[in-house]
Amino acid sequence: MNGSIVLRRTVRLKITQGLHIRACSNVIALVSRHSGQVRITYGDKTADASSMFDLVQLAAVPDSMLELEATGDDAEQVLNELEELLSKPEEPSS
Amino acid sequence: MQVRHGIAVSPGVAIGPAFVLGVEDFRIPKDSVSIDAVNVEVERLHAALEKVAQEISANEALAAKHLGKEYASIFGAHLQFVRDPKLIEQIERRIREDHESPEHASSQVLRRYAKELQHLGDQYLAERAADIFDLERSLLRHLLGEQREELSHLTTEVIVLAYNLTPSETAGLNRKFVQGFATEKGGSTSHTAILAGALEIPAIVGVGDFLTDISGGETVILDGNEGRLIIGPDEKTLEKYRLIKERFQSKSQALRKLGVGQAITTDGVSIEVCGNIEFPEEAIQCKERGADGIGLYRTEFLYLGAMGERSEEDHYQAYRKVIDTFGERPVTIRTLDVGADKIPGAMKHVYNEVSNPELGLRSIRVSLEYLELFKTQLRAILRAAVFGNARVMFPLISSIGEFRQARMVFRDVCEDLEEQKIEHNPHIPVGMMVEVPSAAIMAEEFAHEVDFFSIGTNDLIQYTLAADRSDPMVAKYYNGSDPSVLFLVRRVLFAARDAKLPVAVCGQMSSNPMFVPLLLGMGLRNLSVTPQSVPIIKQLVRNISITECEELAQKCYQLDLARDIETFLRGELKRFLPDRDLP
């Protein structure tokens, strides 16, 4: 990630199905509304949160710990929104 | 010389040079891209990705409309795969740096990714690998699209060899140049196989891997009678097959002659012998074989395998083609008759597997559930009906209320067209298929509501005897000769006779010569059969009298075992249609 400040946060994944396709899809939709970059690390794998292929490959299971990293002016806000999305037990339907 | 075996699906012999098709699964060009061409190739990749994205978006919109947001989001996810910046970057890099063709690069990247998913140890994700293979296929289809078009630009006679042919590709084959085809994939009941038979193109399917052993232009013999593909035949074999080919051609010409002219019994009763078709391309062959009209025009091809919903115009063009071919003769169009899982082809996976699909949401039930889909089809039929003698019928009607509901939608559509001042024919007959036992039982009541009946024996037998004929374990329970089936058919024929309603039998029963005298004896005057059977059924009708048929039917009524009825009918057929009448 380039020069700007990197914010980090660890979140427990509560989505009942884990990071399955639809959840990944929601993450991408969320991230794409922001200007900075977001990465998600699970175990030894790190994914670019704008890449479906990357995210799905994390194969993150429910109740696992995810490490989020964000850059950009609204990094704080992205992390807040992501945390909300990932720590809700049910997938939002949109 | 090499001999390969496959499943014979359409008889005849063809000899000629091989035309190997840019294969779907997939003859991928590995050839490296020259440095000058890199930008063009990358552009081609982007154009193909964009087309795939458009297809998915169309499906997404359709799913949202018909099934709700929940399902649509699945397509949203697929869209994100296609638009994944990392994916595009990886493929692009292979084109730019390794000079791979876009086809090869995309295939490599997507396949490697799918394999990774399969090995993550997560059942759900492993299954998603299928989605990635799907994506690869769509992408390659667009990238290789131009190659496949070669098929429609043939200028010499060839034998087409392919990994697989879709029904629409088969329907589009130019019969002037395509002498026959063989595919690695496919089974005897696939649409492609059925279509090849209808179009009279000798064909074998399910040959297994052979494309790698053959190069374009090599001489091959395709034996659609025995299911043989002979690659690089020697002179002796060629000679043998030239003879077989000639004999086969003179035989089918003789058969074709039988189809010419009306079918009138020896006691002067005229019997209408119509054809059953599915694809508009079949109409001409069907007419040439002597069909008096189309008794069953299946419209499922408009839904199967299509990536998105077909437009009213697609329907309209398909109906016009058949109606124009038959002029004043009747063309009976059956509205959609498939399970909900097939609407449209690409949305299968949004439905959960139903344990008993034959008793589930299918056929007219789907139409009444997805009214917009139904109305689109009805509009097209009503518009096309201006140009000929069209009739519309609803499949799988199981209650009078259901028929009324369908007919109400039909009236709504007429009113809409009226208001919009669009030319249409609101006076076309509206009938129903009798294929659910409940409808046969209530035939007298239905006779007050409908303009005509058409008995669909395949489903009627299946539902009456509770036996799926495609299940080998119970196939013996599926029997058209069963007295219960004949009882129901008779019931419908009698109800129609009393109400002076037109009635046809369009199931396989009427294509089987054995049943024809019995059906005529029970009062049937209109048969609709597979196009191939038209000539032989006409010849049979010309050999018999209605009086004989009525006597035969009386005898059948007294038999209570399916086996006895079948033996009796077989014996009688030998008398009515002796071998000397068969070419």
TrEMBL record, chain A:
Main subcellular location: cytoplasm
Gene Ontology cellular-component annotations: cytoplasm
UniProt name for this protein: PTS HPr component phosphorylation site
Domain HPr: from-to ranges: 6-92
Keyword match Cytoplasm: yes
Source lineage: Bacteria, Pseudomonadati, Planctomycetota, Planctomycetia, Planctomycetales
Family: Belongs to the HPr family.
One GO term (biological process): phosphoenolpyruvate-dependent sugar phosphotransferase system
InterPro entries assigned to the protein according to its UniProt record, in alphabetical order: HPr, HPr-like, HPr-like_sf
Source organism superkingdom: Bacteria
Subcellular location: Cytoplasm
NCBIfam families: PTS_HPr_family (TIGR01003)
Keywords, alphabetical: Cytoplasm, Phosphotransferase system
TrEMBL record, chain B:
Domain Phosphotransferase system enzyme I N-terminal: 5-128
GO BP terms in the entry: phosphoenolpyruvate-dependent sugar phosphotransferase system
Coiled coil: none
Origin superkingdom: Bacteria
PEP-utilising enzyme mobile domain boundaries: 156-227
Entry's EC annotation: 2.7.3.9
Gene Ontology terms, MF aspect: kinase activity; metal ion binding; phosphoenolpyruvate-protein phosphotransferase activity
Pfam families hit by this protein: PEP-utilisers_N (PF05524), PEP-utilizers (PF00391), PEP-utilizers_C (PF02896)
Enzyme active site: H191, C506
UniProt KW keywords: Cytoplasm, Kinase, Magnesium, Metal-binding, Phosphotransferase system, Pyruvate, Sugar transport, Transferase, Transport
Subcellular location as annotated: Cytoplasm
Cofactors (names): Mg(2+)
Record-annotated PEP-utilising enzyme C-terminal domain positions: 256-544
Residue numbers binding phosphoenolpyruvate: R298, R334, N458, D459, R469
Catalysis: reaction(s): L-histidyl-[protein] + phosphoenolpyruvate = N(pros)-phospho-L-histidyl-[protein] + pyruvate
Amino-acid positions noted as binding Mg(2+) in the UniProt annotation, renumbered to this chain: E435, D459
InterPro entries in the cross-refs: PEP-util_enz_mobile_dom, PEP-utilizing_PTS_enzyme, PEP_util_AS, PEP_util_C, PEP_util_CS, Phosphohistidine_dom_sf, PTS_EI, PTS_EI-like
Cellular component aspect of the GO annotation: cytoplasm
Segment forming the signal sequence: none
Function: General (non sugar-specific) component of the phosphoenolpyruvate-dependent sugar phosphotransferase system (sugar PTS). This major carbohydrate active-transport system catalyzes the phosphorylation of incoming sugar substrates concomitantly with their translocation across the cell membrane. Enzyme I transfers the phosphoryl group from phosphoenolpyruvate (PEP) to the phosphoryl carrier protein (HPr).
Family: Belongs to the PEP-utilizing enzyme family.
Name under which the protein is recorded: Phosphoenolpyruvate-protein phosphotransferase
Species name: Thalassoglobus neptunius
